Structure formats: C-alpha cells, structure tokens
Amino acid sequence: MGDAAGAALSGAYVLAVLAGAALLSRAGASAETARKVVHIGLGGWWIVASLLVGSALAAAALPAAFVVVNGIAYRTRRLSFMAREEGRDTPGTVYYAASLAVLALCSFGLGAPYVGALGVLCMSFGDGLAAVAGRRFGRRRIAAAGGGKTVAGSATMFAASFLSCAFVLLAAPPVGAGMAGGAGRAAGADAVGLASGGAALGASAAFEAVAAAFGIAAVLAAVATLFELFSVDGLDNLTVPLGVSAVYVALFLPSSPLAPAAAGLALSGAVAVASLKLRLLTKPGALGAALVGALLFAIGGWPLWLVLMWFFGSSNLASKAMARRARAVRAREAAAGTRHAAGGAAGAGALAAEGAEAEASAVEGAGAGTLASSATGACSSAVEGAGACAQASGAAGADASASEAAEAVRCASRKRRRGEPRKLRQVLANSVPALFCALGYAASGDGWLLVVAAGALAASTADTWASEVGVHSKNSPVNILTREPLQRGLSGGVSPLGLAATLVGAVSSALLATLLFRAFGFAVPTGPDAFALIAACGVAGSLLDSALGARLQAKYRDPEAGRIVEKPPVAGGASLVSGHAWVTNDAVNFMSGVAVVALGLIVAL
Q: I need a labelling partner for 325 at 20 to 30 A (CA). Which of 118, 141, 294, 511 fits?
C-alpha cells in the first residue's frame, strides 16, 4: 500500500474517533467524557500510521493539518463537544496534534516509529486514564503540584504509561521495537547489548530482554508521570510525549543522530516546566526557552547549555537575594518611620510599614501583578501619611518622610515590572545572538564561533546582574553618556555596585565556559585569550546595553505618577520624552547582543 492510501486510511480513523465522540455528546455524555474518548482513541492513530505509512512527511502531514484545524476550533469554540467544563478550556488539542507531528517527523525519519509510539501512548492512555481515575477516585491531592493533581491520578499515570511502554518495546516492528524476539531495531540495544537478527532468542536471553524492557518502561513511566504532574494548562500534551521519547533516545539510543538534540530537549523541557510552575517564565517563554536550550545543547553540548543555565539561574538567584535585602531594608525604614512619627501621626507610620511590606511581597514575584499594584497603592497612602507626619513633626521631618515615600513608590513600580515572568520576546532577545553563533559553529566547525557564543551569553548574564543588583546601590545612578543623575530603575544608568556586578557576571561566565569546554574535550580555544574574549564580551555587552538604553530606548513622562517610565501607562496620557517608541528594553537587549557578537567575531576571526 502506498503512503497516500495509508495516510488516507489513518485520516479516516481520526474522523471515526471524532464522530464517535460527537455522537456520545449528543446522546447525553458529558463534555469531559467526549474529550477523553478523543484523547485516548487518537493514540490508536499512531499504531494505524505505523502499519500503513512509511514516509515521515506522509505520517506528519495529517497531525500538522490538525494543528491548524484545532487552533481554529479552539479560538472559535467550534468543537463544542470537546470543550472543558467549568470554563477551563486550554489549547491542549493544539499541543496534542503538534506533538504527533513532531514525533512523526523525527521517528518515522529515523525508520523507528516505535520511538514516537513510546511518548504518544503515554500521553493518550496514561494521561487520559489518569484524568479519569483522578476525578473518580482522587481524594488525596499532591501539594507539590499545586493541589491540582491527585495521588490516584498520578499512580494511574505511572501504571498506564508503564504498560504502554512495555507493550511498545516488546511488540514486533513496525509498531514496536521487537525486544521480545530480538528482531529489527531492538529497543535499548545500545544499552543492553541485545542481539539482532532473525533467529529467536533462547529462554534465558528472552527473559533478559523482557526484564530490560520492563526496566526501560519503568524509567519512561516515571518521566511521563513527573512531566504530567508539573505541567499546566494542557502543556502535558507536549511535555509528556516529547519528553518521554526524548529521554528514551538520549539514554537508550545514544548513537542516534538525534540523541544530542533529544537530551537537550529533555533537560531544557524539565527546566522550562519548573520555571513555568515557579512563575519565572510565561507559557510562550517556556516553550521558546525549551527550544533554544535544545538547540544549544545539540550544538554546544553540556558546556554551552550550562552557561545558558548559569545566565538564567544566577539572574533569578540574584533577583531573589536582592529582593530579600530590599525587604529587610524597607522593614527597618518602616520601623524607623514609625518611631519618628510617634507624636501625632502614628497612623502614617503604620501606612508606610504596610506599603513597605506590600512592596516587599511584590519583589518576591508571587502574584506579581496584584501584589505590586497593592504595594504601589499602599506606598501612595504612605506618601499622604508622610504629609500628615510632616505637619506634626516639622519641615525637616516632612522632607525626609516624603523622600522615603517617593523612593518607595519608585521601587514598587520597578519591582512590579521586574517581578513579572519573562516573556518569549525577552527569552529570544537574550539568547538568539548566541544561538546564531552556535549555528555558525555547526556549519563551519570554527571553534572561535562557539567561544563568541559563550561571550554573548556572558553579556546577557552581566547585563542582567547589573540591572538586578545595581538598582540597590546606595549611590544614585548616573546616565552612562552624560554622567548626569538619573532616576533609579531607568535604562542607561550606571552605578558602582552595578559595574561591579557586571564584572562578576562576565568573569564568572568566562571561567565557567572555558573550564567546561576543556573538561568535555571540545575542540575550541580554552586558553587565556578565550577567557579574556568571553569576559570582554560580557562587560562590553552590559555597557553597550546601557548606552543604547540611554540613547535609543523609549522613555515617557507619566503625568499621574509625576515620573519617567519606560512603558506608557494603560490609561494613556504619557508623553514620549526621549528615545524612539519602537525601541523597548527587549529591542535594546537584542541590539546589544548582536553588537557584541559582531565585535567578538572581529576580534576572534
């Protein structure tokens, strides 16, 4: 049978599943029941496609088409029988089709459809049955997952995923890996040394093969359960199938040409899921970070990926550490203000303390939007209270209280902006210049391109450290170009503490990159010249970012707040006072990254 006929028959199977779900819905079945019929039933499509289709493009065409169809249906709510109850609808159907398309392209392209089947069946049967069990038998919820998942559901996820993976590994090709008979491309052959060929295995060898299959299935079931446990908003339809198949290829098929990318996808996907759970990234930001991380690992291996993780992890650690420091400082200032206003304006001191506590909560980043707004409102109340305190305490006290309150307002606004999860454009602005260099290295093999890629990541690290740490400097920042005093938190400002943070971020990144390149045996320069180039790129990138921010980045005057801001308020009324409206902080980050890459290449090549 040709690929076209096979694809048509597999498409007929999909339409039959959808028609069955629609009939159940019309017969009175709940929307959730119809969803689960589709979710579980479509797992059988992979088996049908494995039997009838041989081409990767033919196999991927149908799910790729359903990515578009499901996207339109999700936005227009056309497939009402698949809508979630209680208004909790997510684009999970889009993710489902996308994962099928990606896995079909990769696993059919390798001539091993079973690799994709491992992930797909964990998603369809494991995730589908886990939801049913969780709703019916779930009594005890898992606090670590936010309380949305149950022990019964996760146990069912593990059991169903284990049985699915064991079936795929033991079944005969093309549906399975054929470990039970030792035929074809035996799953895990790289790891367990199974003999391939047409001869049947002896009883002892067959037992070892089954035991190996069960061991691999247990590992993959654990991976599937963890991804399903911590994924949110329908993302488990991406993380479970892609994560399971990626882990299998990385661990048990290390000789596969896709093994480096698979390892990078598994690692970066895990980091992205955790970051999404911790509100460090938005959903698009997490997806973009996983893709960039997978590509950097595939090209630059552990060294470049760990430098990327150093940028992301250390930046968030620096932000958290300075947030704690800010909370302690604000608490001390609030206590001092309360004692100072003990005469007739104790209420004003209480309001200032409340504002400081609310602003400190906003710094922590949890519920950033609501808490930061509350903090700003509380700080505004503190300003009014400071006026009352001034009338009771004299002109000198009024000046001090007003200054402290105004600074609290600025800090609350700044922390509200910084406490938001990183968006996709922020992720790309800080990583795409390094990715371009890495792709150049993959194409040419010139080791200096990988060194410059590390330099671009060092620039992102140094700039982020300067922003997160430097804003807490005791010295007021000055414009990097004019040396005039600059409002705290605005781009283009520098301070002694910020410059020190720049240097530490750049040097630490350079040291980490050169040590890792040497430890993992990469054929790239790792001597003092490479170290110096990476560190210089880091420092230059941070300074260029400040210079571009001072000269080009848009800044507005907010008439209500009476200060300069970098984003026009939603209410409007702000006027552009400098820069260009289209030049945002993300645009500045990208431009400085490109400039650093260009300078690095000029020096290195």
A: 511
423's enclosing H/E stretch is: none
Q: Kindly indicate the confidence band of residue 79, based on its pLDDT and cuts at 50, 70 and 90.
A: low
∠ at Cα 102 (98, 103), nearest 5°?
115
Residues constituting the chain: 605
Q: What's the pLDDT score for residue 479?
A: 93
pLDDT by residue (tens digit) across 174-227? Answer: 999 998 775 444 444 444 443 344 444 467 888 888 999 999 999 999 999 999
Tokens found for residue 49: 């496609």
Neighbours of 142 (CB within 10 A): 16
Helix axes 236-252, 113-121, angle to 10 degrees: 140
Judge if the upstream peptide bond of residue 569 is cis by omega within 30 degrees of 0.
no
| Chain centre distance of CA 453 | 20
Give the mean model confidence (pLDDT) for residues 85-96.
Answer: 73
CA distance 471 to 520: 37
The pLDDT score that the predictor gives to residue 92 is: 84
256 SS3 class: coil
**Residue 557, helix vs strand vs coil:** strand
Q: Where are the alpha helices (DSSP H) in 341-418?
A: 346-364, 368-393, 395-418
Question: What are the counts of helices (DSSP H) followed by strands (DSSP E) for the chain?
Answer: 21, 5
Cβ neighbors of 167 (< 8 A, separation 6 or more) are 121, 176
Nearest-angstrom CA–CA distance, 565 and 265: 38
Would you say 371 and 362 are in contact if contact means Cβ atoms under 8 Å apart? yes
How far is it, in rounded angstroms, from Cα 240 to Cα 122? Answer: 7
Give the angle 392-396-398 at the CA atoms, nearest 5°: 55
Q: Across residues 346-364, what is the average pLDDT?
A: 43
Instruction: Answer yes or no: are the C-beta atoms of 484 and 563 closer than 8 Å.
Output: no
Report the range of poorest mean pLDDT among 120-129, 182-191, 256-265, 287-296: 182-191
> Residue 408 has what pLDDT?
39
Integer-rounded Cα radius of gyration of the chain: 28
With beta carbons less than 8 A apart as the criterion, state whether 228 and 130 touch. Answer: yes
Closest of 429, 426, 377, 386 to residue 405, by C-alpha: 386
Q: What DSSP character marks residue 476?
A: P
Give the Å distances, CA to CA, from 237 to 55, 127, 240, 270, 509: 24, 8, 6, 14, 35
Share of the chain residues as helix, strand and coil, in percent rounded to the nearest 5: 75, 5, 25
Phi and psi at residue 580, to the nearest 5°: -120, 140
**Cα within 13 Å of Cα(414), Cβ side:** 22
Residue 299 confidence (pLDDT): 96
Please spell the DSSP secondary structure of 117-173, one letter per residue: HHHHHIIIIIIHHHHHHHHHH--SB-GGGTTSSBHHHHHHHHHHHHHHHHHHHHSPT
- % of the chain beyond a pLDDT of 90: 57
- Rounded to 5°, angle at Cα 574 from 573 and 580: 135
pLDDT band at 15 (very low <50, low <70, confident <90, very high): very high
